[in-house]
Write a structure and sequence with these properties.
InterPro entries: WD40/YVTN_repeat-like_dom_sf (IPR015943). Keywords: Signal. This protein is mainly beta. It has a single domain (about 5-25, about 35-330), classed as 7 Propeller (Methylamine Dehydrogenase, Chain H). Helices cover about 5% and strands about 45% of the residues. It has two helices and 29 strands. It has helices spanning about 5, 10-20; strands at about 20, 55-60, 65-70, 75-80, 85-90, 100-105, 110, 120, 125-130, 135-140, 145-150, 155-160, 165-170, 175-180, 185-190, 195-200, 205-210, 215-220, 225-230, 235-240, 245-250, 255-260, 265-270, 275-280, 285-290, 300-305, 310-315, 320-325, 330-335. It has a five-stranded antiparallel beta sheet. A four-stranded antiparallel beta sheet has the order 2-29-28-27, with no helix packed on it.
Length: about 325
């Protein structure tokens, strides 16, 4: 994966010692681990007014829209409502077209499904959403889901507010239940490596499906909020409270970089074609692109965008950037 995959300086090793090593927790299915916690961080509130107009094409979003997701083909965009009861589907080729309105049952998160369409999770339910709006519903025993991801083979991982990650097959049957975290706010997957972000511990933890256990955990400052993986196998987290992005690589995980990002880094997306990490900065209503090729984040672009840019997505084929406002200010479409 280039220099950033192998470059480990003494400074990085020292930084790893500074953030601390958290031993892998057990698989207790009934209790919350007795560990030090922080108040879970959230996105920094955007300024009331912005001095710059958003870059790119600005497209209105339906009232109450809070986030956008692209399917794996890049042909369809799914937009989730703030109350989780509506998903709007739009063709990427004509985002000004009237959306297909799909009524759903209180979803918390939606992601692209590996075989096309989307996969959503909400209290006690897992829902597959086809590009034409058709729904396939499964009841699951998860009262407060926070995150969802898919693994090779198509099974879904659902993280919840009780610190568990549960695996479900295509029929909605629970395959395994791994506990031991305080919360499971985000899940990132690359090949067979799975990493879970816990906002209450501000940590990332490896998940081992082979023996249904937690692996190595590493601290991510005092306010980690989001987590993604890129095509190199790096796992990247926004530490919103401490104004930095933090990158990890390897199995077991090793922290590879920490880079300052002022004013509240939050949403993350990686452009595989340009090899740029895009970060939304909600405290400034900006998105910033970083080159990670040297092993340290180097800023390459910074553009103004919509108010409260809590959600961003990248078209893997074209590199087009989509930035969604969480306060009704629309969708910015920025082409390469």
């Amino acid at each position: 994966m280039g220099r950033s995959a192998v470059r480990v300086s003494y400074a990085v090793v020292a930084a790893l010692a500074a953030v601390g090593l958290i031993s892998g927790c057990g698989n207790d299915k009934s209790t919350t681990p007795d560990v030090e916690t922080v108040t879970p961080a959230t996105a920094v509130q955007a300024p009331v007014t912005s001095t710059k107009a958003p870059a790119g094409q600005l497209i209105p979003l339906p009232a109450g829209a809070v986030g956008v997701t692209l399917d794996t083909t890049g042909h369809t965009m799914a937009i989730l409502s703030s109350d989780g009861t509506t998903v709007w589907l739009k063709p990427v080729s004509d985002l000004t077209a009237q959306p297909r309105v799909v009524a759903v049952d209180g979803l918390t998160r939606i992601i692209a499904a590996p075989s096309g369409g989307f996969l959503g999770v909400g209290p006690k339910r897992l829902v597959a959403i086809a590009d034409d709006g058709a729904l396939t519903r499964h009841e699951i025993d998860v009262a407060a889901p926070l995150s969802i991801a898919t693994i090779s083979g198509g099974d879904a991982l659902v993280g919840s507010a009780d610190g568990h990650v549960r695996e479900f097959d295509a029929a909605g049957k629970q395959v395994r239940d791994i506990g031991g975290l305080v919360r499971a706010d985000d899940i990132a997957v690359h090949d067979d490596q799975i990493v879970v972000l816990d906002r209450a511990q501000s940590s990332v933890t490896q998940l081992k499906l082979g023996d249904s256990s937690l692996g190595l955990s590493l601290r991510v400052g005092d306010g980690a909020t989001t987590l993604i993986s890129d095509h190199f196998g790096r796992f990247i987290s926004a530490n919103t409270r401490d104004n930095e992005i933090v990158g990890f690589f390897g199995d077991p995980l090793v922290m590879r970089f920490r880079g300052p990002v002022a004013d509240g880094p939050y949403a993350l997306a990686y452009d595989d074609r340009a090899n740029l990490l895009w970060v939304s900065v909600t405290g400034r209503n900006e998105v910033v692109a970083y080159d990670l090729g040297s092993g340290e984040p180097i800023e390459k672009k910074r553009i103004a965008t919509v108010a409260q840019p809590d959600s961003i997505a990248i078209d893997k084929a074209t590199g087009t950037l989509y930035v969604a406002s969480a306060t009704g200010a629309g969708l910015a479409v920025v082409t390469r």
